[in-house]
Known about the structure:
Number of strands: 8
Radius of gyration: 18 Å
Oligomer: single chain
Amino acid sequence: xxxxxxxxxxxxxxxDHDLMEHKALSAATTAAIEGWLAQRPSGSPLPxxxxxxxxxxxxLAPLLRRLPLGSYLGIDLAAPVLPLxxxxxxGVPYPCAWREQDLLSWALEPAGDDPGASAAAPVDLxxxxxxxxxxxxxxxxxxxxxxxxRLAPTGLLLWADVFREPGESREAYVARxxxxxxxxxxxxxxxxxxxxxxxxxRFDHPADATGIQHTAEACGWRWQWLWRGSHRAEALAxxxxx
Length: 242
């Protein structure tokens, strides 16, 4: 089993055992998207969606298969997951495209590079799940500003991720999350738990929940928390253009 397969197998067990409360998060995401679609004016063009860090779509696919989309673009840095995601949406009535790419580089691209787009067509719905926390603080600000520029005036950014408590240092966050894994993730083998702890210690840079809201507002966004998990880490934010 290669490195990706080991990592993805561990990730799937985290999801299947609901260790990061993916079930509640998925329900909140579904409600947010369906509510937004219901409020769109009659006769609006079908929305274009971009999914940053799409993964294998195991959780989101049931919703996507019934959404009235104009197009869908799935982006992930892990190229091996893209065929898995594509299989989940096989047969949907809208064009889909898949791209191995960093989410920040997509945000900084000129508009019009996505399926079904005219040269200057904005994106209507941006969704990202457990990906932005890998960016540094300055990169998060660039990401928010760039997404704001790419989104339609009536569009929506749904950001699911881990966040630090207001005023909490990264070191304190990592320590309590590592303790959470050590104490409560017994559904994973010890080697898998260690692999997750090593990853978050090296690569995770969750935003301060209050600080990132101020950053987003400075970039032209309205911020609303839709859901927060019971462990003071996982959360879902809804961002709309001011």
